[in-house]
Amino acid sequence: MIITGTVTRKSIAGGFWAIIGDDGQQWRPTNLPKSLQKDGKIVTVNARLAEEDMSIFMWGTAIEII
Amino acid sequence: MLIYIYAISFIVSLSGLIGWFYAEEHAKRTKAFSTIFLGGFFVYLFSLAFAEVAFEQKLWVLFRDLIVLGLTSQFFSFFKKNKAIFFGLLAILYGFIGAKYFSFLTNSLNEKSKTETTENNSTIAALADNGELLVEVKDGEQIIDLQSIIEKYNLKYQIAFPQIENSDITDLDDYYLINIPDEWEGKRSVIVRALNESGLVDWVENNEVLNVSPMRSNPTKINRPSYGVNDPGLGNVWGFDKMQMSKLYQTIQTKKLKPKKKALVVILDTGVDADHEDIKGNYKKIRAKYGIDQHGHGTHCAGIAAAVSNNKIGIASFAPNNGFYKVSSIQVLSSSGSGTQQGIIKGIIEAADNGGDVLSLSLGGRSTDSKQRAYKKAVDYARSKGCIVVVAAGNSNMNAKDYAPANTPGVITVSAVDEVLNKATFSNTIQDLKMGIAAPGVNVYSTIPNNGYDAWNGTSMATPYVAGLLGLMKSINPDLTTEEAYEVLKSTGIDSGSTELTGKFIQPQKALESILK
User: CA-CA distance, B319 to B145, in Å (whole number)?
Assistant: First the structure.
């Protein structure tokens, strides 16, 4: 699936990178490339749902960027 | 800077006034000197007005300076007909100003701090022997900003760690040692409160022995008087105030409480750094491989639930003498902080089979019917073995009924609140769950691997607070069921900013008193 949104750093559970989709969806990429790890950066990524189903983050939907 | 402007502007004013008297018969020169005087005097008044000294002192300085201006200019006017004497005296005047009077002027706006520094230097040894206060002034603030408190109680202060070479890598250079004079010794707690409420300090604590070594490796007698334990990091743990931990400790100590059994709180997480200096003493091994944490999350949770109290390092937990419960770890999540439902359920079973009394799960994900059923079976199994299972509500600012295992029947679900007891912006809500409760979950200071400490956010952090308290309660009453425990937490808790969304905020001392009845 193609996701377009804004990269943001969440300071929950030690911190993680997230993408807030243009439609408001909360995505939590498990492998966001370093080059995209910038607060406020607008990105479009091709991703699939991550196999992870439980985590310490308890925020958004885990995705794996492909 | 302002005091130099003050001194220079005074000298300019004086020069202008002398010149004005000297040249009063020459219209052009008179105008030029009067302009110099008025300009200089305006700057003088401005600098004096904003000088950081008491108003009375400003008035005195103004009075003195006006007399000096008037008398000096008048004196020079007597000799204006004799140029040799006039300029000779002028040279002497400027020589005197350069040699003595300039520093006199600058010190006249700095006299108080100079006096205090001198006095403090003479009392260093006494301070080290007395029970002084150690104060960490906030970044960007100055100790002089506490002047009203310092003056009111006649406090003396000095830099606590003047030997620091690399102040850019430590906050220790913000520490001041404050000496309370004997006549105010009885008001120590009032002074501590005043300092805390000033908004200018990060931390106030008792200090009986001064040492520049890092606190966690320094066997000092540092106390935080309001809690009665000596863990120096507690100044960063705001939740202790809101949970009224000093009352809890007082109850445990005055009633001389003894545990009926040593309860076990199991952290199901990314593992726990079992060798952490502030966890090791309370740690009970289930398997060696669970005593490692490559993420940090599990170690943070373990510290919240069961950091070793009163050990002169780091933080503390719910028992001041550590004799009531232990903490253990079962690793159910990877170093990235994620895992599978299967792994978590295996972990719940393993914890129950290994004597866990309270199982703390700071984890979760979106719920499905099948997930909920599977978790319910695992939780039922743990409950049948006497365990209380505590689960984080989740961090998506959504209804926790849609998150598992937060929504599993039979668990206590924990939401997070901030320093003013408002729901944390990220915290899921518990209004549709049977057993929801609230605990500190924002800016929570606790242990991280390799003897570190840090402040984290999340319902993950709120959960082990409840788990630790339940560990204490289970040690007093080993037969306490989940429902009984929850009723105690709920009935003794206090309202948050939105209790219907968070549940009641835990009050450990009242909860303990309740199960002692």
Answer: 37
Looking at domain A2-65, its CATH class is mainly beta
The yes-or-no verdict on residue B226 having pLDDT over 80 is no
* Through-space distance between the first and last CA atoms of chain A, rounded to whole angstroms: 10
Q: In 3D, which of B295, B264, B296 has the Cα closest to residue B282? A: B264
- Chain A residues with CB-CB distance to B under 8 A? 10-14, 16, 26, 30, 50, 52-62
**How far is the C-alpha of B33 from the C-alpha of B27, rounded, in Å?**
10
Asked if B240 and B231 touch (Cβ cutoff 8 Å), the reply is: no
Phi then psi for residue B416, to 5 deg, are -115, 140
Interface probe for B, chosen from A10, A11, A12, A63 (most Cβ of B below 10 Å), is A12
The full set of domain ranges for chain A reads: 2-65
CB contacts under 8 A, B 296-325 vs A, are 296-297, 300
Beta carbons of B149 and B176 less than 8 angstroms apart = no
Q: Which one of B65, B269, B357, B418 is the catalytic residue?
A: B269
What CA–CA distance (Å, rounded) separates B197 from B180?
Answer: 18
Q: What is the distance between the alpha carbons of residues B100 and B65, in angstroms, rounded to a whole number?
A: 15
- In sign, the C-alpha dihedral spanning A34, A40, A42, A48 is positive
Give the mean pLDDT of B107-125. 43
User: Is the pLDDT assigned to residue B167 strictly greater than 70?
Assistant: no
pLDDT attached to residue B200: 82
Query: Residue B83: is its pLDDT beyond 90?
Result: no
Asked if residue B492 has pLDDT above 90, the reply is yes
Using the Cβ of B273 and the Cβ atoms of chain A, whether some distance falls under 8 Å is answered with no
Chain A's closest residue to B406, CA to CA, is A58
Q: Side-chain half-sphere of B329: how many Cα atoms within 13 Å?
A: 30
pLDDT surpassing 80 at residue B173? no
| Helical ranges in B110-258 per DSSP H | 111-121, 124-129, 147-152, 188-197, 238-242, 245-254
Q: Average pLDDT for residues A35-39, to the nearest whole number?
A: 92
Percent of chain B clearing pLDDT 90 (strictly above)? 52
**Annotated catalytic residue B26:** no
Q: Is residue B335 annotated as a catalytic residue, yes or no? A: no
> Does residue B358 sit in helix, strand or coil?
strand
Query: Across the interface, which of A16, A26, A54 has its CB nearest the CB of B365?
Result: A54
User: Is residue B1 classed exposed, middle or buried when 0-12, 13-18 and 19+ CB atoms within 10 A define those classes?
Assistant: exposed
Residue B65 among the catalytic residues: no
- The ipTM of this complex is 0.90
**Residue among A53, A56, A61 whose CB faces B337 most closely:** A56
| pLDDT at B246 exceeding the cut of 70 | yes
The helix or strand, by DSSP H or E, that contains position B392, with its residue range, turns out to be strand B388-392
Contact list, A9 vs chain B (CB under 8 Å): none
